[in-house]
Amino acid sequence: MAEKHKLIAKKFSYEGYFNYKEFFRIMDTWFREKFYDKKEDINEEYVTPEGKHLEMEFVPWKKVTDYFNIKIKVEISVDNLKEVTIKKGDRAVKTNYGKISAKIKGYLIVDYENKWQKPLQYFYRYLMDNYIYRHITRQYEKEVISDVNDLSTRLTNYLNITPYQVE
Q1: What DSSP letter does each residue of 68-118 carry, written as one string?
Q2: What is the percent of the chain with per-residue pLDDT over 70, rounded to a whole number?
Q3: How far apart are CA 126 and CA 120, in angstroms?
Q4: Residue 162 pLDDT > 60, yes or no?
Q5: CA-closest candidate to residue 72, choices 26, 39, 25
Q6: Which of 43, 71, 91, 138 is the residue whose CA sits 20 to 30 A from 7?
Q7: Closest by CA position to 72, among listed 125, 124, 35
Q8: How far apart are CA 6 and CA 154, in angstroms?
Q9: What is the pLDDT of residue 93?
Q10: How do the domains of the chain map onto residue ranges?
Q11: Is-contact 40 18, C-beta < 8 A?
Q12: How far is CA 164 from CA 13, 43, 89, in A?
């Protein structure tokens, strides 16, 4: 049976002006740059009097070997999303205002093809992972942590450095 090791979890929230499409384009571009295949589990939208409410859950994965698989779970909630017009330099630009909350979790999945299921094989796999090939397992654990940190940094940098002024 495949083992799923949760290695890291990051959270951030932001309330203010941002471009909704640009935010998701940055995330999709990052996944393509790092060779992740993306799966969208949840994509819900509700319209309320205060604005739109969006719930999304993405689970991109990357097959690194026939034995190790990396998954990143991205949960995004957008509250009170409204389209607004702001002044950017001398131009009026349409953008969005709302509150984003995001959780990014990183997982290393060991033996995801379930080749080592029998009790004796499971025992051997445990010995191999934790003692003999521990340096290889640590290398992939570091890759998961690095990827989650990089994605989180890229998204928070976009949200924090967007230079907008209200009209």
Answers
A1: EEEEEEEEEEEEEEEEEEEEETTEEEEEEEEEEEEEEEEEEEESTT----S
A2: 92
A3: 10
A4: no
A5: 39
A6: 43
A7: 35
A8: 21
A9: 85
A10: 3-160
A11: no
A12: 18, 28, 9
Number of residues written out for the chain: 167
C-beta of residue 40 within 8 angstroms of C-beta of residue 73: no
> Smallest Cα–Cα separation from 73: which of 149, 156, 148?
148
Q: Residue 100: which of 10, 9, 11, 8 has the closest Cα?
A: 11
As a whole number of angstroms, the distance between CA 68 and CA 113 comes to 9
- pLDDT: which is higher, 153 or 3: 153
For the segment 88-111, what is each residue's pLDDT rounded down to a tens digit? 788 888 999 999 999 999 999 987
Q: Are 42 and 55 in contact, with CB atoms under 8 Å apart?
A: yes
